[in-house]
Amino acid sequence: MNKAIKKILVLAANPKDTTSIRLTEEVREIEESLKRSQNRSQFILQTKWAVRPRDLLRAMTEFQPNIVHFCGHGEAEGIALENNDGNLQIINKVALAGLFKSFTGQVECVLLNACHSISQAEAIGQYINYVIGMEQEIQDKDAIDFAVSFYDTLGSGANYESAYELGCVAMQLVGAPENLLPSLHTKKGCSLPNSPTRLIFDPDKEPAHQQISFQSLRNALEKHEAFAERFVEKLDLTDFSKTTIANATRHILDADKVYVYQYNEDIMLCESSPESQSHTDIDAKTLTNFLRQNYFKAFTSGRPHKIQLEKGSFFLIDSYVTIIPQEKSRSVILIIGTSDQVKRLEDITAVMLGCLYESSNNYGCLETKEDIQNRMYDSIKSQYNYVSDKTYEYRFAAFQKALKDIQVFFEPILFFDKQAENLTIAGWEALARDPKTSLAPTHIFKAAEMWGVRFQTELDLYILGTALRTYKRSSEKARLYRYDDRKMLSINVYPSSILRTAYERKLEHLLVNEKLIPGNKLVLEISQKLLIPSIIENEERGLESFRSITRKYRKKYGIEFAVDDFGVGHVAISRLGEINPTYIKIDREVLHFDKKLGTNIIDYLVGLKLDLNYRTVIEGFDEDSPFSLKELVVDLGVEYIQGYLLGLATPDIKERLDKAQCRRIFKQLGWRDIA
Questions:
Q1: Does the predicted TM-score (pTM) go above 0.90?
Q2: SS3 assignment, position 171
Q3: Buried b (16+ CB within 10 A) or exposed e, 13-23
Q4: Cβ atoms < 10 Å from Cβ of 446
Q5: Strands (E), 182-318
Q6: Which numeric CATH code is attached to 407-440+452-669?
Q7: Domain with CATH 3.20.20.450 in the chain
């Protein structure tokens, strides 16, 4: 039986000013998939490298493909091709849709195997029957796994939908989460149906006519995530108190009693019980004494436990006691009852409830129902490192909403000139602050590090834009208009964000288009609490990508880099040469090491200025520091120091320190008094 030959056009582009990706391997694997397929004679493959816009148009016109496969970089604004100099040129979704509109009768399927290509896929899907795009960032290995399975399935004679489905399965088999899977869009604008389907094989039919379809298995966590939704619905926050959570717990589980008991102090922190008598009525003191004597290991085990108390031992009928330990506060949550909900209470649900009792008198940031639901979802992610797609997207939307409340303050970095016995404000560090407390929003940072790269990038994009715009307004308010008046501004960024195209595009827009600050006045502080290559499988390749990006930032914008959190993160002395920072920021914890060890570390790092021109900055200098200011500046030769003893973080900046503050610092250093 004769079949129409399908022509596949592969378009590859990796501009010089973007992160290097494994395009050669992807194309090679596609070729191998088709070569070993049973219908290999039905496919013609042509590859175009370093594709420019004109190359794209020519290839489409001359080759007349049925399948167009793009591999390379992508972002929300469009697909990355190359310009005549080999650098990045974005082709937006309007232009792409217009191009494929001209080939509606020819092209059957478009595969955009690039990050953030979902909007382009939707636009092209108006004119092409099948278009596959990526909603989020996709790792090289995942892109290759999808492509190999996609063409393996096509080569067997299956249709595009089947090839898409099995490509997704291939990604899941090697651990890709559901939220990172590609999306399929059809000309009618609908994705694959979610209704139950069967996997059908008919040996009497040819492969091309087989119906190959399936449904992913239900996520085991979904019922527990639904529990969180029902739980917050039952909350009454009009009079929020320590018993609010206990009351909601008792109601949703149809429990008889809920206690929060602090065993190291032998006190009951709160109690929820019905007004009417129940089968489990018993003095709380009697019950807790019994549990302490017989089940104390469950109090300190770190995991929830369930105890069945037979009829007559304490209660009138068989009853159950669930113990949820709270190690930090040395307390336990005791849920007592006879209902099926109490009897069948599972570990995951218990963990979700336990997270709401952070300590005996503190419920953290729990002010709204959304706060409570977020805390419960965080507990699942923390404990099991996995949630459903629905929960992931809910949590990301909540994270984005929380970011909008964050403000940026500026903490001065002082330069101490030991020879001239003088000091000045060398620059400012932009610090995120919660407007309600004026403190660091630690819940935001913890969420970003718990939920991963997408959250970290979103945080860094927000802080970058907010910091630069606030700094410009504050400079103008302080009448610091001239170039020489502007001090260095340091902004923290996660290592993973530096490698993201979205971060570079945002940076370029703020520096080049909005001209908020000269690039050579900006310092990006790379936190070393997370490994640089942790987002890439191969450590050396991860470092090389990072070095390539930092070199480009220096050359193109004049930006400098600092290694942040030195002494408590993952950076080693040998790694400094690979990162090549201008500044090394010593974490405040180093000041609290054994003093001899701390002295040796600081002395060594200060000495690197002579050989490698690194500048050392001491962070977090405060009244608890074992080192005096004189020891750091005069004895050890530290030139840059910041901390609230030297200057508080505030929304405003100023040109210089006030005279009273300078006199106080000079006195600590033993320097001459200023006039």
A1: no
A2: helix
A3: bbbebbbebbb
A4: 12
A5: 183-186, 257-262, 267-272, 305-309
A6: 3.20.20.450
A7: 407-440+452-669
